[in-house]
Amino acid sequence: MDSVKLTQMVKTSGCAAKLPPKQLHEVLDSIGWMHSPDLVEGFEGSDDACVYRLPVGGGQVMLQTVDFFPPMVDDPYLFGQVAAANALSDIYAMGGEPKVALNLVCFPSCLDLEVLRQILLGGQSKVAESGSVIAGGHTISDATPKYGLCVTGFAPEHKVWANHGSKSGDVLILTKALGVGIINTAVKAGLASKEAQQKAILSMTTLNKAAYEAARDKDVHAATDITGFSLLGHAHEMATASNVSFILNAQNIPVIEEALEYASMGLNPEGLYNNREYLEGSVQFRGGMEQSRMDILYDPQTSGGLLLSMSKADGLLYSQETGFSIIGEVVEKAEAPLLVV
């Protein structure tokens, strides 16, 4: 296989390639919703997956999601792993278990087919780790490589998590550190250290399976995963959907250390600025905070962690058992959906 730098073939990478949220909502809000008595959750609520009640399922529901993007790493196998972990995450974020997946591939005809093989093998490795299977897929010849999955999972209807339902008094748990979007930008600029690259890759290839398993029997009121719209963007969706406000303690939010350095150098992805523009007026920063740390809160994550809103007793126990971070609390609706202290 000839040496190829996948990241040099794309303008934006990973979840940073998402359509800006302001533009996306402008279009979606203009479309009439389709309804079904068995569609428990659709895309009108900005949930991570749709929830469809099975006609013969004994209280079971089907969870379905789709996610794909251009590469954020040059190694094809690692790219496949990250893209698959990212797509599988949506099922875990809804409180379900993935069972079957379909490959989605856009692949340039100029590349060696061994590159495609490695991408698919990387994706297959993470699907196997999740306990699910790949059953097929679809390919398109395209100048920009892209890969992802359509994933179907299942859960008891009464145990499904949604991005609404947060209650005043809940604690907010984050299960992965932030900063991979900024580090990926530094990698593309040739300015990231090997250590920073490895930290980002480890984060992006780690399934949210363990986080889901640690929380599934606890009193989780709302959940989502942190991807392209940033911690603040996805927290905003949860807070507004729940008609509450979130107080986030910036010093408790875990960050990959090198990302602070790269943010201070201005190595920020375009999606970071799109997120900031979209959230203007929805976030209040109380007290002083360096610009680099503020930037990381808007940083588009790829295959980020879960954000869980859960009862305080369960939240404290969960943090002690796993080492995940308690980053804030839920309060009655205040002057802004998000208050950062």
Automatic annotation (TrEMBL):
Q: Which residues form the PurM-like N-terminal domain?
A: 47-154
The record's Pfam families line, in alphabetical order, gives: AIRS, AIRS_C
Residues that bind ATP: 18, 45-47, 67, 90, 137-139
- ATP-binding found in the keyword field: yes
Q: Which residues form the PurM-like C-terminal domain?
A: 167-334
Question: What cofactors does this protein use?
Answer: Mg(2+)
What EC identifiers does the entry list?
2.7.9.3
Q: How is the cofactor bound?
A: Binds 1 Mg(2+) ion per monomer.
Sites marked Important for catalytic activity? 18
**What are the binding positions for Mg(2+) in this chain?**
48, 90, 225
* GO MF annotations, alphabetized: selenide, water dikinase activity
Which keywords accompany this UniProt record? ATP-binding, Kinase, Magnesium, Metal-binding, Nucleotide-binding, Selenium, Transferase
Q: Which residues form the active site?
A: 15
Tell whether Nucleotide-binding is among the UniProt keywords: yes
The cross-references to Gene3D superfamilies, in alphabetical order and at most eight, read: PurM-like C-terminal domain, PurM-like, N-terminal domain
Name the PANTHER family for this protein. INACTIVE SELENIDE, WATER DIKINASE-LIKE PROTEIN-RELATED, SELENIDE, WATER DIKINASE
**HAMAP family of this UniProt entry?**
SelD
The protein's assembly and partners? Homodimer.
Q: Per the similarity annotation, which family is this?
A: Belongs to the selenophosphate synthase 1 family. Class I subfamily.
The protein's role, per its UniProt record: Synthesizes selenophosphate from selenide and ATP.
The name this protein goes by in its record? Selenide, water dikinase
Which species is the source of this protein? Sphaerochaeta associata
Q: Which gene holds the coding sequence for this protein?
A: selD
